[in-house]
Here is the input.
Amino acid sequence: MGLTLTAKILQQHCLKGNLVAGEEIAVRVHQTLTQDSTGTMVYLQLLALDPQKVQTEVSVAYIDHNMLQTGFENADDHVFIQSVAQHYGIITSKAGGGICHQVHLERFAKPNTVLIGSDSHTPTCGGLGALAIGTGGLDVAVGMAKGLYFLKVPKVYQIVLTGKPSTTINGKDIILSVLRHISVTGGLGHVLEYSGDGIHYLSVTDRATICNMGAEAGATTSIFPSDQQTLTYLTQQGRPQDYVPLEADKNAVYDQTLTLDLSTIVPMAAKPHSPDNVVPVSDVAGIKIDQVSIGSCTNSSYADMMKVAKILKGRQVHPDVSLVITPGSANILRLMAENGALADMVTAGARILESACGPCIGMGQAPRSGGVSLRTFNRNFKGRSGTADAQVYIVSPETAAYSAITGTLSDPRELNQDLRVIQPASYGKVDRFFVYPGQPKVTPVIMGPNIKPFPLAKPLPDTLRYPVLLSVGDNITTDDIVPSHAKLLPFRSNIPHLATFCFTAINSTFAQRAADAQGGFIIAKSNYGQGSSREHAALIPLYLGIKAVIAISFARIHRSNLINAGILPLVVDDPSLIDTIKPGDVLALDSLQSTVDHNGHVTVLNETQGTSLTCSMSLSPREAQVLRHGGYLNTIKSVDLQEIA
Ligand code: MIC
Ligand code: SF4
Here is the structure.
């Protein structure tokens, strides 16, 4: 039986375990990336692990999320991250260098390597054949300290792309079409692996856009083969030596297959408030818009920027529209300045932002009340833009730029313009935003007053008896659990402060009630914890005394974050019973230690209703140990990782 591309990479880099779907293995980690909003926590954890130096080939600490410096907090965090990076042999990409995933693709990612990152869009680098996985911060800290990562062997979902896309089609329209088919849960437990004749028409950056938004399908990661397009890109980036050819065996066997004919794909839009709420742009054309925002790690490549510049050149942004553009890296911004694209944008009336996440993470550019915003980003969850009642549509840069001119949501095919971009033979580079590390353990760690210790759980007790503090529905995002915007991002290194905002958009009294109750449970439905990798969505409930989340299912990264923090992720065996548990009910869980050790079923006795149900956790032996010890960090301190793998 032939091997999938995913299996080939996992097999080569597997350190321990069997390549059987669902079983946990340990893999060698070649590269890690962090960004600043999750990074402060990662580096506090790395300090707790205190290796001599990082055990990876390349580790990069990007500063790209928390860019507003309206007080000392973000600036302190940046200095802290850079100082820890220097301390342990990590490269820093300073503020202004660009968005982590775009810069990593340009400068560091390599085919046939394992990259983990403390950001859910780390799979972007799957666009050039890396197995790139978004994880919680503690997993990245362990990856740096020990050079390994534990994951459940995913199933492989083959996505066959046939046919040739038209020139107005962006990778974004392709991944939106995939999401339309498989929804925000369709990738759970799978790697989305692309193949077929159509992939040869897709550049590495289009592929990166597609891999980036595989995160929105809940996939473990997404990956393209490494082929001529990969070699071309790496050559343009000045590192052809990093190329290795890589593809699945012809007779590889997949768990599922979806075939898409690229010649039939049309411009697509994800309507409010979910990335899988996808329709052709023509179905929603004519909606009056207030704001257009182009950029983010999904669509800020050189080619995307040049297509936007082509559309804007000689035209004018509609008087009722605010158009903001965020190039993905300092190098792209430099190229645009040199070739005149920047002038075309500004002349048309575009606002240019620095190379960073910016509006995508709510760092400014919140739309007006009830405003309609078109964004080339990857997530349009309610309220994420910073305006609770804004209507956010996710579209391609082509659709966004054309709509900015017309003032309404418009189909870029009407332009009838050749949007092909001639790539430079060499992209050149801007190196000055990188700070390369010197001798490890020489630079002192600098910690400002906003940086507070993170909470640690206690070893698992044998019984838990607490009230239900909150009951929520399907697809609760980590943005719902811990909101993220310009006012709160400065407190990512201050769990006690951030805790007061936990679940505020859903239930304004939760944080106070949890603090008063000194222990409790959360009840949820399907796909609890989708979206961001922020481990704050586990650490803050831990800080507030949450002992277990009982749900129908969990998103992958969040489930790991709960276990890493020492919170039980209980999956109800009969989903129809989840509604029998009401807020305020007192639940009792017994014999937890032996149940966790034997990966058995937990009986949840609802003392208030006089009913009971059972739950399971599908724990690997390592995860069971982690829960027993009260979290990953406590475990590593007392047990040798190699032994528990
Ligand atoms: C996001 O896009 O939601 C973020 C902000 O990049 C997060 C990380 C975070 O919450 O800091 C992610 O995707 O993991
Ligand atoms: Fe940054 Fe947005 Fe990408 Fe997250 S999705 S890494 S906030 S650009």
The chain has a mean pLDDT of 97. Residues 301 and 499 are 36 Å apart (CA to CA). The first helix runs from residue 5 to 13. The two ends are 27 Å apart (CA to CA).
